[in-house]
Known about the structure:
The complex is a heterodimer. Chain A is mainly α. The radius of gyration of chain B is 16 Å and the shape is globular. In chain B, a hairpin with a 6-residue loop joins strand 3 and strand 4 (about 70-75). At the A-B interface, helix 17, helix 19, helix 22, helix 30 and helix 31 of A face strand 1, helix 1, helix 2 and helix 3 of B.
Amino acid sequence: MAQQQGMDSALFERRLRPVYDNLEVGNNRKALQESEKLLRKHPTLLCARALKGLSLLRLGRYDESHGCLQTVAEEKPTDDSTLQVLSFCYREMEQLDKIVELYQHAVKQNPGNEELLAHLFISHVRVEDYKAQQAVALQLYKAQPKNAYYFWSVISVVFQGIRGPESALPEKRKIYLGLAQRMVDKHIKEGKLETEQEAFLYLHILKLQNKYQEAWEFLTGELCAKLYPGAPVSMKFELLKELGNWRELNELLQQLLDADRDRWDFYKEYIQSSFELLKLSPQTEENGEKDSLARCQEFLQGIIDSSERKKRGPYLARLELHQRMRADQLPAEKLIGDFDEMVIEYFRLFGDKSCCTHDIALFLPSISMKQRQALASKLLLESGVTSTSLPKNKEQLQKHLCALQISRMCGSHMELPVDHLLAFYTNLKLHYEHGRSTFGKKLLATEMGPSDAYALLAANVMYDLSRRENKSDHLFEALCLLQYVLRNSTSNFHVKLLSLKIYHLFGCQVGAQEMYEYLDIKQIQLDSMGYVHCQLLPLGGRFSGTRNVYDATLKFFTNSYKERLEYIALTYRFCTFSKMEEFMNFKERLTNSLQYVACSVEAQICDLVSCYGNIQQNLTAYAAMSIEPAEDRIAWHELSDNRDLEAVIRWDPLHEVNAAEERKESFDQEVEVLQVRSLMLRLFASFVDLYHGPSSKESPAGEEAATLELLRESWTGLFQRLRLMNYKPMAQKFLVNLLPTRLHLLLDLPYERFFDDLAQLVLDLQSGSGKLAEQCKRVGDNVITVMELCVQTINESNEWNGMDGLWKRRGQQQKVAASLEMLSLYAFLLSVLNDKLQVSSKAKTKKRPVDNKVDGPQPISEKERSQMLQELMRQLKHKLEACDAAIRTWKAPVLPRDLSSFMSDMSLKPEVEATLIGDVSATFKDSHELMVTELRNLLKDKIRMVAK
Amino acid sequence: MTTLRPFTCDDLFKFNNVNFDPLTETYGLSFYTQYLAKWPEYFQLAESPSGHIMGYIMGKVEGHLDNWHGHVTALTVSPDYRRLGLAALLMSFLEDISEKKRAYFVDLFVRKSNQVAINMYTNLGYIIYRTILEYYSGDQDEDAYDMRKALSRDVNKKSVIPYTQPITMRELRRQMRHDH
């Protein structure tokens, strides 16, 4: 075989080309035809058979593909192209151990073949089998004494010590790391160390063993200087700290800072080393010498005095020194001066930079609330803009903004009465407009407006007001203002993010979607930023309309899931030892992203809820989802929070914001929501499987019922636990705070009982239990409850519309969506049950000899069961119609009417104002109408589903 | 006031305040991972004292013989941290690494219309080496300037004698293939 191929490989390659080409452009059917054509001429051509397997795989014909690939693999191919195709297939199917086997066979037949060995090595990398990696790397090195291979084996030893199964045992860890070090030592002695990554690895091994002195000597030695001239200087800091050599560190940092006066990392270390030196010789002014902090202060002052161009570095460092001294109860003021004065000086120098707010905010937590607010007032005064004057130039405008942002951070807005806040808002609006028309005229499309931040601040203030009054009008006005800003500076993403938030808060999915698309969130941002939109869509009011957003997100994840191991392989190929662990951890984070898992589950639920075909089509679609009820595929303890919560800018009072806690709380709740949703999905799938289970499997009878029972127990157990946990809804103190999770919605609505009772119904229906009629009644009652919930919510929404159409809108839409979700799933289930019962009652009516020997209650006849089912379907149809009637009456949200004064302070032309408010209003109206249309279509499908 | 440190995979989750900027492209993962795996020291990040990402630079080193050079693939600074000399800091870092790697010059491509960037690079000592026709594709194709700065190894500054004629994408690709 191999010889046949070797004889004319060029010819075969030419003949295989069309198959490859078709696969590449995704024309899988054609690829299959081409491969079959080729196989008719050359039935034994392995690569063509492998490609046929790949084409089948791509076409979703898994069984045939599997058989095809299996027979190729059994022939133990050794040619590169066949192996490549096979390993590609196995990678797609996540059968990574098969790739290992494949290359093991190939290597056995071609011992010492470098290329095959390298592939074998990478196949071990994919399954993280470090021990096997080590062995293969050594074989490689024997075959080809390249440094890369030698160090592949070294790093494989290191990983056995720090990541492998034995890494938990300290003595094993020690042995492995010791071995790795000796391997490199030997190489060094032989003068064979060649690259900077090899030098890095050696340093890393030494550090892992706490051999800091040796590491220091190597790092500062000749060899390292030659091989690794770009070694980051932070390595030196790290080692000097470990060695407790604070004096040398202190001196080194002074030198570095002299040359590079704006490096925060250097200052931070420098200040720390000064404090450590103080601990070593605490007596001040001993021998007339100043203590280390005084020297530190002098050094910083020296930098300030001698710098021509003012840099933030030394000033911030001085504030940091001040802060740390106060934390240690040392006389900061005496040594450095008055804190407020220093902050004001900083503000004077750098207040015109937009980062000044972040900078000053760093030091606010170290002073009392009273001092904070006093300081904020001083800064406002310092900005030179008063309530009756306007900024004279861009710099002054930025200073004013900074002072306003700081004063919000200090809590100054919190205690203002409503009318003050309103006046403040008007003032901000005015400043925005003034800044825009005076300094923002020649803006590039890619720039943010100089005064945009006034409007952002204004939106936050208006949220505070809305929340205080539990009314939407102020926030709605803020939304209009933001939309106005967005017309002027189209690239301001802060404005888009806040608008997106407000649209969601008001349940306006069309507006939210518009902002989301405007943000152009893509690639990894779909993971880190998905929380602003994708995560808020489920149960938001629409089903089919949200599917596209899930799809785009899932596409990113499935692609990167496939590629994730190849990234790691890449670090081996380039011998980038410094990045390997980082890449492995990254892979874990991406694979276990909560956003990924949650989005997959929601997409599946969404598909089940909105399926609209005939029963056969629906069951096929269901089967293709391959939900395994018995199997919990989620690695609950590994779930990763990849949200970039800091991307949304905020200046909320520091004492009221605990970002870390908010992150944790919301994440915990989201995980619980996922628990409910994924269990609901599995439980529901177990209902379907009981009747349409994969009968081809030789699973023992009753296994499906057992799974159902088990899941049902978990279901009620989960709700019991969640109620005991007593989670609090996320506090929505500020606009930027995350919206509440769906946890309380799921707990408050009758989800638990609804699906619990369905479980019993499904079981009783199968066994023909005498309690079936009773259970039907119970389920019927639940349906009434859910229908009533839907109808009442809509009535309530219509009533509320008279007072405030937006404030409670999101919650109302959620309730309606949840009701319809339950009823839709139930409709699908009934259609499945009905299908099965009709078939089986027809089949069994004939052969039923009256055989009444068995005592005890008789199962209810199939016919009776079928009748009961028909009755349930009839009832559901009726209730769905009631929901539909209610939805038909659902009124679009009435928007706050009195906006006439809204823009009166602005130099806006009336037509601009009219179109702006008109556009925002239209967005709300469209959103409502679209939702109603979608929900009604959904109901129409479900009514049809149960009408037969 | 900046902390300079290597860009890590985890930063990909946190760089949104920089990448939402309309001039900053968010690439597919494989693009970032390739740079991180191949030229880890050429991918550096500037972090503010408050822990925000201020900006980053992404580059590589490649080429044969006297064409061995550093290349700036992407340089971006968050809107909140502009006018602080951050781009210059990141550029000087990349030049420094290229010096240590004994490169002859550093080069970069910039949109012909991006006058702000061109001025900045000129101030940093870069010259317009040549024009590349229709380098940026989009609704409207746009030419790029290939800008260069010689490093100390190029004693006679041979690498920065400008072309007089613009070159096409095809020529550029041919040269690059030749180079690898």
